[in-house]
Amino acid sequence: MPLLKPKFSQKQIEEIKTVIKNKESSKQEVCRAQTILMLNNDIDTAMIQALTGYCRKHTFRLRARYLETGLSAILDRRKGKPKSLLTKNQIKEISQSVKECSPQDFGYDNEEFWTTAILGDFIYRQYQVRYQSKTSYYLIFREAKFTFHKPGRIYQKHNDEEVRVWQENNELKIFKTLEDPNTVVLTEDEMILSTQTTFQKIWLPEGEYPKVEISNTKKNRSVYGFLNLKTGREHSFKTGWQNMYETVKILEKIRELYPRQKLLIIWDGAGWHRGKEVQKFIEKDQKIETIYFPRYAPELNPQEHVWKNGRSHCSHNRFIEDIDTSTDEFINYLNTNTFSYSLLGFSDIS
């Protein structure tokens, strides 16, 4: 007779294995975990009973309870209610564990980083304390001097050595230029704004479930952005395309904003930055110098943070009916606010 389907997910299997590997688990807890893993692996129920003592009916019931309630079906039932609070010494012990160890050190295979869920399970196993609110776990992370982060993205071709060399070669030059009152230092980037709705997590009262209308058509507008590193002032411009001809038009507008100053523009090596028409314009101007960011290192460019700020305020979680109206609103927000971002890696620049 075939066993229950579907099989456990890989995440469930890893979760069950943490019980087996945890030195604090009781013999009964380990036995229950092994029982449902053997059942999941199609081990004959007669063999399971011979090894664990659990009959066929009990084995299937244990599996069903796990699918319904999770690890509580495997763990021993503790007498009395869990403690309401951790002591100061216990919080210090947990904080030290979080700072010095990863979840893998405590049997959580394939879990390199701490999360509130893992921390909550760890605390329950160690001290039989179960908090109802995540806020308590946040406070423990703060005690350990941890801050909340989403994992950052890094390009596969990102080269740390190339970034290091770029910083060594350009740090002094950028610092000296920033001290020159007659030179404006601009970091530049482009982005595409679309009618396709983008979403960002929000906090709402329990029981409220917002819905955001999305567009059935997709229209795009390009935005060129220049951030003045000295003043934090942003200069953004709407275009239909990103090419060397559009780039020349935008550089003409930047020159109108700074008619007599020297310009140092730091941007990436996109083709529309290196194109012959752009190079002709720069050569004719005679007061523009450029530095190219290293390849696949957008995290160095503070303009990336300006885009993120603008999206949070103007485009996330919104239905974009008219792409031009929304792009104009987006640009207006950027150009009427200041952004005190530095070149990442050059922490003294402000």
Please describe what this structure looks like.
The chain has 13 helices and five strands. The termini are far apart. The chain has a five-stranded mixed β-sheet, sandwiched between helices. Helix 2 (27-40) packs across helix 4, helix 9 runs parallel beside helix 11 and helix 12 packs across helix 13 (323-335). It has helices at residues 10-21, 27-40, 45-52, 56-69, 88-100, 116-127, 134-143, 160-179, 244-257, 271-274, 276-285, 303-314, 323-335; strands at 183-194, 220-228, 234-239, 262-267, 288-292. The chain has three domains: 10-73, no CATH class; 88-143, no CATH class; 160-335, Ribonuclease H-like superfamily/Ribonuclease H (Nucleotidyltransferase, domain 5, 2-Layer Sandwich). It has 350 residues and is an alpha/beta fold.
Order of helices and strands: HHHHHHHHEEEHEHHEHH
Shape: elongated
Largest sheet: 5 strands, mixed
What is the CATH topology of the largest domain?
Nucleotidyltransferase, domain 5
The SS-based structural class is alpha/beta
- Just name the CATH architecture of the largest domain: 2-Layer Sandwich
What Rg is obtained from the alpha carbons, in whole angstroms?
29 Å
Give, in spatial order, the strands making up the sheet with the most strands: 3-2-1-4-5
Mean pLDDT: 81
Helical amount? 40-55%
Number-wise, the strands total 5
